[in-house]
């Protein structure tokens, strides 16, 4: 909300700079900043066009003689289609500075001298979408004669100074100038004064054509109307127009502008309807039917049964609290008008505005809340302005659809308790004075106080709110600095956090980059990687269909990251995420939050260079990353990898479960080709591990050992085995039968092809034996080696080669 200082002066004395006021308001808890419009503007004056002649060398240019208050008229060449003799216009003289660094100089346009520029509003700093529509494609023309040579800044509000207040949802009372005047006035101990709007009693009539009915009274606690007849719609005065466009509102006509002005002044949205365009004179506020249509100026919205509407018979006039339709819009031909002021349920307005993408000034105020104590006064003020600008012949009394009497909030507390909570020792009079500065009524009886809160501050309801107000106005910067008392808590990470950080550092050291993804997924995403077979957790009110469910895996987010990068020609990807997934058992309402670490690798893991060849990511590279992490957990567990085809979106021939002592703790694998194609990613390998399960494993006691003093002995073993037998099974059997001196087993050769039995493969293993306390003999090694071979032949029917 931008608070105009010139406007603010109508309510309170303003003697401070806009920068000082912004700083002062920020210290009270509402973040604010100064706005100085048009600081760069210079040499802009009123010009009076005294004569116009066609340009001799152009079809559209005109040579204008312009009175700018000097001894003689100056000549300006202008190409605007609406330029005409006798107009009072904006003139940028020689040397003038305009927005975006534009400087005006004397020159010639097609041979004709031009000593300045006749300007449109957009050329002097008013955005085109907020200036009157009639001047969109031409120069701005004053409606009334002005003094040639006078500066235009104050006339048009081009150099208005403002305090831009960043309103929090609980302080919607400052979304109107009057509420802002209370707030700023309280910071300077200045109580604002307001003029009560009054109507011409001679015009008020008991007769009325319109009736009002509210069917959803819980959603519409207040709904009031007034008729004005015999009006003549025209332009609103310039002072009002400049205040509107400086609030980013386009001036339309004297009726619509008056309604918008009251919204800024009071914070209460006002709507206007052409009375003669109504299908029936019975106005109803009700829920729409599925399929009802709201015609806007540039589109049609299809409504449903959850939308609260203003209707005249079958005619939908507007979406309540959000936006009016075009069917009963006020225009230059309107002679009878109906003004509306109401209070609509904030949640209903927010959902409707979001559903139809129609967020605006009205819905913003109703969402945050409006003062139901000034609805009638705001309607009187709007009626007063419309009558003032259009000279109505007849004004009806208030037509009531629903009315709820606004009652002030009464809060009781103790002076001593307020001081205790603030850590201050203010006197009762000081606290009372602060509360009265805010316009609150205070009654004191000894230590007890009773504070009556006006309806404009509907955010206050308990004693803590009173304490906050005293704190704000007293000044947070004035609170004493004290060190905290009591037991100190030693800082540091928990054991589990240290454990997860260790895993994270391993992947960072391996060259992977960490990413952070949103924890909400689409239904398809949670179905694609529900590897833990959990129930889905859906939000009650999701923002979009892509963010409906809490994630049950980190993989979908990583796949999106890979797709995003590869679409931008960044094909070599190594990323990981350490975060929580949500596992909800069938018999549980709330999901469990479980810590996971997942990664995705695609493209080259070694770049092509003068001394190295490019190396693409594969299953074994990713398996190596996982094995390194598992090794660093220092867990007293047996980790195994078991091939699986259970996961639909992973390649059935390149996927394995990761087990710890037989319990599944994660998986690694290549994305299924169909899944890769559907998500526009190249070959990608992924892994996912449950950190909570890893952390729960027993830890090994690690003891330092001296380097072996005795040499090791190695043996190589080549076998022919059926293709379906897994390497892990063979290695496990070798260790089981290799004896206590077998230290390591590595596979160094795999061959499948010609000169082998069908459905067989040739494997080569390197076995290393070591006795740390003595020299091994060939007899000992050969004995163990023979047991290994015999067991492989017996269990797996291998052929020793």
Number of helices: 20
Portion in helices: 25-40%
Shape: elongated
Question: Can you tell me the residue ranges where pLDDT is under 50 for at least 5 consecutive residues?
Answer: none
Main location: cytoplasm
Cofactor: Mg(2+)
Catalytic activity: tRNA(Phe) + L-phenylalanine + ATP = L-phenylalanyl-tRNA(Phe) + AMP + diphosphate + H(+)
Keywords: Aminoacyl-tRNA synthetase, ATP-binding, Cytoplasm, Ligase, Magnesium, Metal-binding, Nucleotide-binding, Protein biosynthesis, RNA-binding, tRNA-binding
Walk me through what this model shows.
With 801 residues, the protein is an alpha+beta fold. The protein has 6 domains: 2-37 and 161-187, 2-Layer Sandwich (Phenylalanyl-tRNA Synthetase, Chain B, domain 1), CATH 3.30.56.10; 42-156, Nucleic acid-binding proteins (OB fold (Dihydrolipoamide Acetyltransferase, E2P), Beta Barrel); 201-402, Phenylalanyl-tRNA Synthetase, Chain B, domain 3; 409-478, Phenylalanyl-tRNA Synthetase, Chain B, domain 1 (2-Layer Sandwich); 495-695, 2-Layer Sandwich (BirA Bifunctional Protein, domain 2), CATH 3.30.930.10; 713-800, Alpha-Beta Plaits (2-Layer Sandwich), CATH 3.30.70.380. It contains 20 helices and 42 strands. The strands form 11 sheets. Strands 28-31-32-38-37-36-35 form a 7-stranded mixed sheet, sandwiched between helices. It holds the Pfam family B5. InterPro entries: aa-tRNA-synth_II/BPL/LPL, B3/B4_tRNA-bd, DNA-bd_dom_put_sf, Fdx_antiC-bd, Fdx_antiC-bd_sf, NA-bd_OB-fold, Phe-tRNA-ligase_IIc_bsu, Phe-tRNA-ligase_IIc_bsu_bact. Tetramer of two alpha and two beta subunits. Residues 38-153 form the TRNA-binding domain.
């Amino acid at each position: 909300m931008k608070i105009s200082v010139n406007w603010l002066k109508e309510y309170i004395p303003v003697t401070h700079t806009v920068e000082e006021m912004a700083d002062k308001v920020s210290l009270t808890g509402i973040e604010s900043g100064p706005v100085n419009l048009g600081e760069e503007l210079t040499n802009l004056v009123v010009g009076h066009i005294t004569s116009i002649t066609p340009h001799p060398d152009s079809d559209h240019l005109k040579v204008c003689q312009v009175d700018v208050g000097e001894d003689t008229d100056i000549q300006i060449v202008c190409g605007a289609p609406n330029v005409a003799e006798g107009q009072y216009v904006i003139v940028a003289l020689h040397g003038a500075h305009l927005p975006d660094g534009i400087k005006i100089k004397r020159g010639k346009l097609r041979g004709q001298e031009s000593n300045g520029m006749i300007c449109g509003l957009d050329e002097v700093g008013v955005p085109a979408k907020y200036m009157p529509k009639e001047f969109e494609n031409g120069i701005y023309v004053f409606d009334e004669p002005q003094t040639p040579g006078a500066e235009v800044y104050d006339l048009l509000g081009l150099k208005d100074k403002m305090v831009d207040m960043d309103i929090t949802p609980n302080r919607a009372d400052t979304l109107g100038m009057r509420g802002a005047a209370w707030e700023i006035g309280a910071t300077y101990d200045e109580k604002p004064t307001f003029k009560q709007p009054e109507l011409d009693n001679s015009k008020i009539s008991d007769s009325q054509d319109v009736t009002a009915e509210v069917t959803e009274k819980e959603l519409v606690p207040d709904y009031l109307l007034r008729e004005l007849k015999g009006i003549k719609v025209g332009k609103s005065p310039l002072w009002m127009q400049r205040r509107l466009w400086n609030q980013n509102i386009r001036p339309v006509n004297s009726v619509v502008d008056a309604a918008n002005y009251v919204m800024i002044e009071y914070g209460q949205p006002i709507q206007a309807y052409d009375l003669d365009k109504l299908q029936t004179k019975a106005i109803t506020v009700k829920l729409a039917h599925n399929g009802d249509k709201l015609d806007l100026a540039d589109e049609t919205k299809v409504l449903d049964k959850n939308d609260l509407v203003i209707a005249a018979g079958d005619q939908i006039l507007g979406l309540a609290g959000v936006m009016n339709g075009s069917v009963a819009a006020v225009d230059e031909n309107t002679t009878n008008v109906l003004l509306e002021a109401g209070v609509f349920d904030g949640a209903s307005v927010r959902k409707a505005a979001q559903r139809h993408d129609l967020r605006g000034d009205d819905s913003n105020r109703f969402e945050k809340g409006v003062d139901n104590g000034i609805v009638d006064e705001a309607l009187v003020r709007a009626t007063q302005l419309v009558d003032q600008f259009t000279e109505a012949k007849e004004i009806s009394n208030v037509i009531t659809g629903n009315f709820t009497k606004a009652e002030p909030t009464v809060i009781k507390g103790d002076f001593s308790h307020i001081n205790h909570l603030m850590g201050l020792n203010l006197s009762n009079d000081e606290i009372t004075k602060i509360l009265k500065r805010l316009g609150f009524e205070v009654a004191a009886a000894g230590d007890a106080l009773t504070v009556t809160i006006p309806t404009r501050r509907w955010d206050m309801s308990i004693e803590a709110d009173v304490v906050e107000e005293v704190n704000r106005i007293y000044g947070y910067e004035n609170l004493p600095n004290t060190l905290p008392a009591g037991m100190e808590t030693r800082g540091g990470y928990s054991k589990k956090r240290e454990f997860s950080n260790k895993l994270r550092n391993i992947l960072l050291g391996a060259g992977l980059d960490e990413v952070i993804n949103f924890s909400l997924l689409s239904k398809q995403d949670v179905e694609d990687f529900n590897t833990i077979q959990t129930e889905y957790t859906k939000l009650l009110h999701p923002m979009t269909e892509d963010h409906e469910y809490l994630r049950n895996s980190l993989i979908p987010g990583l796949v999106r990251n890979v797709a995003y990068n590869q679409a931008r020609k960044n094909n070599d990807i190594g990323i990981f995420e350490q975060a929580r997934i949500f596992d909800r058992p069938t018999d549980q309402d709330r999901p469990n939050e479980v810590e996971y670490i997942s990664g995705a690798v695609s493209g080259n893991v070694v770049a092509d260079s003068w001394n190295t060849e490019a190396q693409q990511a594969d299953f074994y590279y990713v398996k190596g990353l996982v094995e390194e992490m598992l090794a660093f957990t220092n867990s007293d567990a047996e980790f195994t990898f078991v091939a699986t085809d259970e996961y639909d979106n992973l390649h059935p021939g390149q996927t394995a479960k990761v087990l710890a002592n037989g319990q599944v703790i994660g998986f690694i694998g290549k994305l299924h080709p169909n899944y890769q194609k559907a998500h526009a990613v190249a070959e990608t390998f992924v892994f996912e591990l449950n950190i909570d399960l890893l952390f729960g494993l027993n830890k090994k006691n690690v003891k330092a050992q001296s380097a072996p003093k005795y040499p090791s002995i190695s043996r190589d073993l080549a076998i022919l085995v059926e293709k379906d037998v897994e390497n892990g099974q063979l290695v496990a059997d070798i260790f089981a039968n290799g004896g206590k001196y077998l230290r390591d087993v590595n596979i160094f050769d795999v061959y499948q092809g010609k000169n082998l039995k069908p459905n067989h493969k040739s494997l080569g293993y390197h076995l290393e034996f070591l006795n740390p306390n003595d020299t091994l003999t060939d007899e000992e090694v050969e004995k163990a080696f023979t047991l290994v071979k015999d067991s492989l032949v017996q269990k797996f029917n291998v052929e020793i080669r």
